[in-house]
Prior knowledge:
The complex is a heterodimer. By secondary structure, chain A is α/β, with parallel strands linked by helices.
Amino acid sequence: MRPQALVTGGAQGIGRAVAETLAAQGWQVVAADRDEAALGWVTDHADTVTGAVIDVTDAHDITRVLDAMPAPDVVVNCAGIAAQLLPLKQIERGAFEQMLRVNTGGTFLVAREAARRMQGGAIINIASRGYLGGAGAAHYVASKAAVVGMTRAMAVELRWRGISVNAVAPGMVETRMIADFTPGMRERLTRLEPSGTALQPDTIAGAVGYLASPAGRALSGQVLLVDGGKSLGVYPC
Amino acid sequence: MLTVVADPGSVADSIAALVDRQCADTLTMAAALVDAMPPGRAAPLDALGDADLEAGLIQPLASLGATLAGLVPQHRRIVLIGTMAGFGQWHASLSAGFAAGATGLMRSVALEFMREGVTVNMIALGDMDDRQAVRAAGLAAVLLQSDAMSGQVLPCDGGDNLRMTQARNRPLA
């Protein structure tokens, strides 16, 4: 039997690329997402990928999806939401909470429910380069930094059960999330990328594929910054 | 003038009292000391429920965001009193999430208000005793009177973090 992987946020963007990469590497993948219509792509990969509708903010929904599949060997938390750039004082309380509930709470709930079923393996959380700090999106940064903190604590606790827990912190990636940005904001952010362009989802999926591999599981509690060097302060010439 | 955002009797409040004694008269601009200690309970991942998530991470982190938004830019020296939990500890999935989230928030606020002369830093406490409180107060007093650094986390644990024992010290069941 192929090893089992659960990928949340698997309908598109990084999640879809991760699901496709893991399937190509020999995993049996459940791509779970809130957007049922966008999961249509899995029909072209029916032998290796199945789709499941999930709300990662609902523990019962997560349980339902996990109960319908064999115990996962790898779980990849990709589900998340981004934010338009917004000054701190304009971030409404409800928006702040929602950001935390989806990006951080969703990661927590999926990891907790999955860990209850896993017999070793790997949990990989998608954070963001932004966890290091960024002006104009304090709630998004807080939500992703919290994912990194949780990753470290979970790694301490779960390594004794043979489960590695790591985070991947992407820079700007060409996904629907950034397609929703205003043209001005998109141009401004793209200009800051060392390569002058956004990363492709496949690049992030490659890092996830490594962490899911036997070699990658030697790492735990780590954050892989996959950002083309932006976190070093590297700017295009 | 030192603004203290901490519950009476809390660790941050104790530190604030010491800071107040040390430097309240010498502060040249509005400053604030803010409690950013994780409020969640220590428990294994499996034992942390949905209510813990809400009370230990979502609500307090959103509240911290609102607190900081209310302090800047009028308060130009801000120090958060946090913990080392964000670096990873046993039975601290939510506390670590809160602590690291508070760090990310602190750095973002520091960056956003840098041009207005605001500095925001965090003191990350280890195991607390009276001696550590005095050390933390001394550190806070320096940060509240200086523009030398912003967006930084300063471990205040007497160097314990160098021993990297957190992952080894498995709590008794």
